[in-house]
Design goal:
By secondary structure, this protein is α/β, with parallel strands linked by helices. The chain contains 8 helices and 10 strands.
């Protein structure tokens, strides 16, 4: 059964068996992917992109794959990974996400990396309560500059609570997506930098958040 997509934020329904995974992933790609053949035992980048609703973003493809295979036993998971074309195997090695707790993820050393974090999300609704910024590119002619804008102008923001401790970690997904339920989830995304007016001036230590792309009921 292919994972279920929900607008910008995607809820993943992990594959339950090797056959389910191969049937979904070895799909022939989109109609213009002439070099991909369905049911030939080889999973190509085009086929993974199709089932994930993606195109050329290899990092997001690998996040999607990792979440989709999370419930398979190790031998079945390895068969899927060995069935991937060489370029896709290389992408998996490069972008394989790390599984972390909220406290472990709260570090600038993982910036731009794919992470999967478990916890219970609580939506932050007040801009007055939560005043941090992100850098947004602005193109004018041939030049691109960056402006600081409040993160809540661009994202729905949550605190993800680690059940085993009191630690929290910020996650965010594009505004307009379905809100996350307030129960235990596994959330996959890419770690990005936050700005405060103070840190922008004094170049202090970085604060981070996870740009959430996929989630799974835990």
């Amino acid at each position: 059964m292919p994972p279920l997509a929900i607008k910008n934020m995607k809820e993943i329904v992990p594959y339950k068996s090797l056959d389910d995974a191969m049937n979904a992933l070895d799909n022939g790609g989109r109609f213009y992917n002439l070099l991909s053949k369905a049911k030939d035992g080889v999973i190509t980048k085009a086929e993974l992109a199709k089932v994930g609703g993606l195109f050329n973003d290899k990092q997001k493809m690998v996040l999607f794959l990792e979440m989709s295979l999370m419930q398979l036993e190790e031998p079945s998971r390895n068969k899927i990974l060995l069935s991937m074309e060489p370029s896709l195997q290389e992408a998996y090695k490069k972008y394989q996400p790390q599984w972390m707790t909220a406290s472990e993820a709260n570090s600038e050393e993982h910036l731009a990396a794919g992470l999967i974090v478990s916890g219970v999300p609580t939506l932050k609704e007040s801009k007055n309560e939560f005043s941090v910024f992100i850098m947004v590119p602005i193109s004018t002619g041939n030049a691109t500059t960056f402006a600081m804008v409040p993160i809540m102008d661009q994202y729905d923001v949550y605190e993800l609570r680690d059940e085993s401790s009191s630690d929290t970690f910020l996650i965010a997904h594009t505004r307009g997506s379905q809100k996350l339920p307030e129960r235990k989830l596994k959330v996959a995304g890419i770690l990005k930098e936050l700005k405060t007016k103070k840190s922008n001036e004094d170049n202090g230590s970085k604060r981070v958040f996870l740009e959430a792309i996929y989630h799974v009921e835990d």
